[in-house]
Amino acid sequence: MSRSLDKVEEAAATWDARLRGATATSSDRQAFQAWLQEDPLHRITHERLQMALSELRTHARLPELSALRDEARNGVDAIRRRRLASIFAVAAAIVLIVMVSIGAQTERGAEIVAQLQGGSVYVTSPNERTKVTLADGSVVTLDSGTRLSVLLGASRRDVTLLAGRALFQVAKDSRRPFVVRAGERTITALGTVFDVDLSKGELRVTLAEGSVAVRPVQFRRGSPQQILAPRQQLVATAGDALPKLRTVDTERAMSWAEGQVFFENEPLASAVEEMNEYSSRKIVVDPAVADLRINGMFRTSNQAGFLEALQVTLPVEVRNDGEGRIFVSKRPGPTAE
After folding, report:
1. Residue ranges of the FecR N-terminal domain (predicted)?
2. CA-CA distance, 118 to 149, in Å (whole number)?
3. pLDDT digits over 273-301, tens only?
4. Nearest to residue 228, comparing CAs of 272, 273, 194?
């Protein structure tokens, strides 16, 4: 790997032990937060460790867990590499994932940024869409620019959506709920089909089949939770006590997973922003035409067809700057004789 995963794992375990110790200070906690912000892999690895430890706590008699607790309570500042190996090796089942790329723009599928023995982390590039099959039989479709971590444990299946959008087709397993954490919420299902989207600065959960429960991450008895029925979409912004529910066309809402986008009275600027997610050649919209409205269904892999449709249906022209950018501007009117 391009980054030393061993060192990141060791650092994550070291921070965990230090912060659990009796001598932890506010300076330690500030330094830990700074470490988390240095690299997305730091936060991902830390979350993987916490999930692994949570799974291990369900098996309190494991000697590895007892030893780890003893070291943490003694304020140990460094955990040896062999200690770290025990933490991740004992975590429930190793996740075996078969990747099948369905992106029209890439053949390689999602990059595995970190494959710990307790789970795996996936990242798609800005120009790809990828499908992965988990060891439990669940299928996850990742949109472009998505970061996702997975940990399949003995008592539950944990997924964290860190960025982007994903469609989940969850294999039924009544003994292990399938829990997706996204932003400030968790989405819990047993066997269902739903979409979770963090790509637009808010959380959107769309349900196609079955049912899911959406609740705050810090859920306590009496806290509000919402049960979605098929064709419902939940929309939550930061700080929402009770997110909004609305009825949607799930086929349209989830069309991105099949490489399609639907626009209905959509401002040109936002339609172009969405199409730009799937191409390395970016379209730039002149502010003078940004509010023009567009309707229709388009293939995310067919940028040329999208641009042609713009020129046919809107008073705009398209030109290339010769440096990989495409400009959409107002079409000049007829000149007077």
Report:
1. 10-43
2. 11
3. 999 988 888 999 999 999 999 999 999 99
4. 194
